[in-house]
Design goal:
Elements lengths: L6 E7 L6 H14 L4 E5 L2 E2 L13 H9 L4 E3 L2 E2 L5 H8 L6 H12 L4 E9 L11 H8 L3 E5 L5 H14 L4 E9 L5 H14 L3 E6 L7 H11 L11
Parallel strand pairs: 1-6, 1-7, 2-4, 2-6, 3-5, 7-8, 8-9
Helix pairs in contact: 1-2, 1-8, 4-5, 6-7
Length: about 240
């Protein structure tokens, strides 16, 4: 397994709500604590409304900063509706994210930082523009490994296989799978999935963050990240 603590690391998920932002913050927190110059890039943020903050999501980069202390964050496009980036741009009457320009932006950042973490929107193959460009295309352009954040319970094995097969078909390296929200009281399916996820992914289980980790204060969050992520992500979780 290659070391994902330098260069560019793309963080994707098997879908929405699996904990990508908290995992991104955990890796960023560990890199910052190790003295690395780390930047976090959100190519396209959806569901954030400046006209109605009460009915708006908190920007992912703000969550990363709150949890990790990393302020070198970059949001390249923002759309108000909680849709795929392509649909959100279309509904808002705004131009979609230019993925080629995003790749150039991230590549330049990587020449000036020790680590650049790129957090996608939704799953790996969510569309960013009418041409069907995806986060996988961005990872190919950057020749970057992809960390896959997964759910803990029933259904996650199928979603994980589909995502990792899509990575493999594009010649992309999987940096492992991380369970984004491990329940306080896991059931049989969750417990068995710990053994089955590496088989489904064809890549190591690189960690699991406990449910509610995103609500912790920064010093506690760092300790949780260190205890629950694998060494190649900056943590100390045994293989």
């Amino acid at each position: 397994m290659s070391d994902a603590r330098s260069g560019v690391l793309v963080v994707s998920g098997t879908g929405t709500g699996v904990g990508k932002t908290v995992v991104t913050a955990a890796i960023a927190a560990l890199a910052r604590a190790a003295g690395r110059h780390v930047a976090v890039v959100k190519p396209a943020q959806t569901g954030v409304r400046s006209d109605d903050p009460a009915n708006s999501d908190i920007p992912d980069v703000d969550t990363v900063t709150r949890l990790s202390g990393v302020t070198d964050t970059h949001e390249l496009a923002r759309f108000p509706d909680p849709l795929s980036p392509e649909a959100a741009a279309r509904v808002a009457g705004l131009p979609p994210l230019d993925l080629a320009a995003a790749a150039e932006y991230v590549a330049k950042l990587a020449t000036e930082r020790d680590l650049v973490i790129v957090e996608g929107a939704g799953g790996l193959l969510v569309r960013y523009d009418r041409a069907g460009s995806t986060l996988a295309d961005l990872a190919v352009a950057l020749d970057a490994p992809v960390l896959v954040v997964v759910a803990a319970g029933l259904g996650t094995l199928n979603h994980t296989v589909l995502t990792c097969e899509a990575l493999s078909a594009r010649g992309l390296a999987c940096a492992g799978v991380v369970v984004g929200s491990w329940p306080r009281e896991p059931g049989l399916a969750e417990r068995e999935n710990l053994a089955d996820l590496p088989v489904a992914a064809g890549a190591p289980l690189a960690g699991l963050l406990p449910e509610g980790a995103g609500a912790l204060p920064p010093h506690e969050f760092l300790a949780v990240a260190r205890a629950n992520l694998a060494p190649h992500l900056g943590g100390g979780r045994p293989a």
